[in-house]
Specification:
The chain has 9 helices and 14 strands. The chain is of the alpha+beta class and about 350 residues long. It folds into 2 domains: about 190 residues, 2-Layer Sandwich (Ribosomal Protein S5, domain 2); about 150 residues, GHMP kinase, C-terminal domain (Alpha-Beta Plaits, 2-Layer Sandwich). The strands form 3 sheets. Strands 1, 4, 5, 6, 7, 8, 9 and 14 form an 8-stranded mixed sheet that branches. A 4-stranded antiparallel sheet has the order 11-12-10-13. Strand 5 and strand 6 form a beta hairpin. The structure holds (3R)-3-hydroxy-3-methyl-5-(phosphonooxy)pentanoic acid.
Length: about 350
């Protein structure tokens, strides 16, 4: 597999003009979940996701020749306009881990300005949007300085590879629509190294799907995804889980082709509950769902049984609930949100979102 290690990407510093790059990149919601990893952020099973439209991070990087020579990365980090040394330190450690891929980073003074479209501490994981935005910016800097990533495919593939190193799920945010990450015999060209876009074979009904996010709790989660992935190593259900994910991918692909919303919805819900079951069967065990998460699940299933409307749920690694439904059901689903789900959200907060077009260079 391509590893992108390239010691040649180093500059005569006198030749470097100061520059700036800005990318806006979205979050994504996995239908087949990635949970469990090995090596340098490699997945234990393939995953597939919707890229979202309104939940985005915008990241701008200003770079100039480094004034004081030194080791590592020289970085100032501002989050939502304010210096944020905590986040800055994490980004610095991550970028230093990329020096074999982007050696020129050690020759620069960098200022990163980053911000999210969704309210800070809304309990929404921002690692996919922020890491993909950062990876896209780094690839743009490389291309500005070396002209090495002119081809769209080469650019996207490297951005996805680098985003993966920051946060596994982030590698799927490089593409609009649906993206697949992880090697599977079901899809040609799939690999553990980066995600690939699912351009063909997706029925139009899934290209405009809604994914409204119900904010059950704004609190930061008690167990990070990093720790959660780690606990999979000793989880007694790990091996059957990876088989289950592959089996469900096999069932999902024809449903996506045929526009089979019922099968899609069943798999999405089963995957969400499997993810949380893995947390509950880890050692130590933990629960990220809240009472209102379960109440929403019950209300959604009851509403679906009573009305026949195609509305389903998914969960990320947290208590917030993603409500999935096709565009033509919006007039039935929005009143249901207002009456039955909104009141269960913290301060009534929920965010409308839908399948998006992918990142954008600003
Ligand atoms: O990307 P990470 O390492 O934060 O893992 C997140 C994994 C899930 O969001 C729970 C599932 C997925 O595939 O996105």
């Amino acid at each position: 597999m391509q590893d992108y290690i390239n010691p040649k990407l180093i500059l005569e510093s006198s030749a470097m003009e100061p520059g700036q790059v800005t990318w806006q990149s979205p979050s994504n919601l996995a239908i087949i979940k990635y949970w469990g990893k090995h090596g340098r952020q490699l997945p234990r099973n393939p995953s597939i996701s919707f890229t979202l439209q309104t939940s985005v991070t915008q990241t701008q990087i200003d770079y100039k020749p480094r004034e004081v020579a030194g080791q590592g990365v020289s970085l100032e980090f501002l989050f939502q306009g304010e210096p944020n040394p905590g986040f800055g330190e994490k980004q610095k450690i991550f970028m230093e881990s990329l020096l074999d891929i982007f050696p020129f980073l050690s020759q620069m003074d960098l200022t990163i300005r980053s911000g999210n479209s969704f309210p800070h501490s809304a309990g929404i994981a921002s690692s996919a949007s922020s890491m993909s935005a950062l990876a896209l910016c780094l690839c743009s800097i490389e291309d500005q300085l070396f002209g090495t990533l002119g081809e769209d495919d080469a650019f996207d593939q490297k951005a996805s590879f680098v985003a993966r190193l920051g946060s596994g799920s982030a590698c799927r945010s490089i593409y609009g629509g649906m993206a697949l990450w992880g090697k599977t015999g079901e899809v040609a060209g799939s690999t553990d190294g980066w995600a690939i876009p699912m351009v063909e074979d997706i029925h139009p009904v899934f290209q405009t799907f809604h994914d409204d996010i119900m904010i059950v709790s704004k609190e930061e989660k008690s167990v990070s995804s990093r720790a959660g992935h780690g606990l999979m190593e000793e989880n007694p259900f790990a091996t059957p889980r990876y088989e289950q994910a592959n089996r469900r991918l096999h069932e999902l692909l024809p449903a996506l082709r045929q526009g089979d919303i019922e099968q899609f919805g069943r798999i999405a819900e089963d995957e969400a509950l499997s993810l949380h079951a893995l947390m509950m069967t880890s050692n130590p065990s933990y629960v990220l769902m809240q009472p209102n998460t379960l109440e929403m699940i019950n209300r959604i299933r009851r509403f679906r049984a009573e009305t026949g409307h195609p509305v389903y749920f998914s969960l990320d690694a947290g208590p917030n609930l993603h409500l999935l439904y096709p565009e033509d059901a919006i007039h039935e689903i929005r009143p249901f949100i207002d009456e039955e789900l909104g009141p269960l959200c913290e301060e009534g907060a929920w965010l409308p979102d839908w399948v998006g077009e992918g990142p954008e260079e600003i």
